[in-house]
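TICKET: design request
STATUS: open
ATTACHED STRUCTURE:
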């Protein structure tokens, strides 16, 4: 019996060692951790909410990247969406198969290209991958949370707005020009080796799951396991609406249904 016990003790030790080795391995391969709904707690400093880390020397300094956005009554043309995101409206129109002057029906999933770079160096905890845009507060009552969650739909976070703007977050008034860092990331060496060219920041909505998101971008090379890996997620983890999920792609994404 004693022999058995010490045997199982050894097995346990071995198991723990394997786990911690794989944990180490995992974190060195690790890419960008998912915000995990921490963007809701504006007054907490979570590094994952401040941006995607680009501090390792092996990271690509800049790249073309993509984000998704859902049209609203205020942002329902390629031009207004491109202005909000500081990107090219002809490219927004082309990627989504719209004409540049079309009005887009509400809640349509739009793909927009952005230039992503390892900037955000001055931000506490940085450098972060981000795409810079500006937003003029439009009415009194807007907060960093409403700008991040409602206007930008989760493409940025209140924590990164607080950390990268000098305005006191309790005294925001209409007319202030807020600096908005849009979360984005460039492919890691491993992703490049695996044939991935872009990371799309997909905005999760109600009812989404990783499998379904992988399927909807399958034509551009999306794959379930590579999405989990890119976001440091495991199959059992829950994903939340109004948070971005990085989707590694091999080809330019488009809105065509697969
Ligand atoms: C968050 O970080 C900033 C800058 O590093 C600091 O000024 C602030 O007090 C921190 N807030 C909390 C809640 O820890
Ligand atoms: C926007 O993209 C189009 C191609 O879709 C290109 O011809 C044009 O030069 C770009 N405009 C700017 C300002 O970069
Ligand atoms: C783009 O839109 C046009 C007209 O709205 C349509 O005929 C065409 O099939 C669409 N193309 C794709 C690739 O969805
Ligand atoms: C960013 O990643 C590097 C390398 O993995 C790590 O040393 C550093 O602590 C990370 N920074 C943050 C803010 O998580
Ligand atoms: C944002 O505003 C700042 C100053 O308020 C300006 O220096 C910067 O060029 C603007 N950036 C963009 C992308 O418009
Ligand atoms: C700005 O505020 C006005 C008045 O509240 C509103 O009608 C308009 O839709 C807002 N525009 C944007 C872009 O949010
Ligand atoms: C975030 O924005 C969405 C869309 O406007 C809204 O439905 C949701 O309630 C907001 N979340 C919070 C926590 O306010």
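STATUS: resolved
RESOLUTION: sequence designed for all positions
ATTACHED SEQUENCE:
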């Amino acid at each position: 019996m004693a022999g058995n016990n010490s045997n199982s003790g050894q097995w346990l030790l071995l198991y723990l060692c394997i786990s911690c080795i794989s944990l180490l391995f995992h974190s060195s391969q690790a890419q960008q951790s998912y915000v995990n709904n921490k963007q809701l707690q504006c007054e907490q400093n979570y590094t994952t909410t401040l941006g995607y880390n680009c501090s390792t020397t092996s990271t690509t300094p800049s790249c073309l990247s993509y984000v998704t956005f859902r049209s609203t009554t205020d942002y329902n043309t390629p031009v207004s969406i491109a202005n909000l995101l500081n990107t090219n409206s002809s490219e927004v129109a082309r990627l989504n198969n719209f004409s540049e002057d079309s009005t887009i029906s509400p809640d349509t999933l739009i793909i927009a290209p952005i230039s992503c770079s390892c900037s955000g160096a001055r931000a506490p905890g940085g450098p972060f991958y981000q795409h810079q845009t500006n937003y003029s507060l439009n009415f009194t009552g807007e907060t960093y949370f409403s700008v991040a969650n409602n206007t930008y739909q989760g493409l940025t976070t209140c924590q990164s707005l607080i950390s990268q703007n000098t305005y006191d977050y309790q005294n925001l008034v209409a007319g202030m020009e807020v600096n908005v860092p849009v979360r984005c990331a460039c492919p890691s060496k491993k992703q490049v080796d695996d044939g991935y060219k872009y990371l799309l920041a997909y905005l999760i909505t109600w009812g989404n799951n990783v499998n379904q998101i992988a399927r909807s971008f399958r034509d551009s090379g999306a794959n379930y396991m590579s999405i989990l890996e890119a976001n440091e997620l495991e199959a059992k983890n829950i994903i939340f609406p109004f948070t971005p999920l990085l989707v590694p792609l091999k080809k330019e994404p488009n809105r065509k249904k697969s």
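CLOSING REMARK: Residues 47 and 125 are 7 Å apart (CA to CA). Confidence is low (pLDDT under 50) at residues 1-30.
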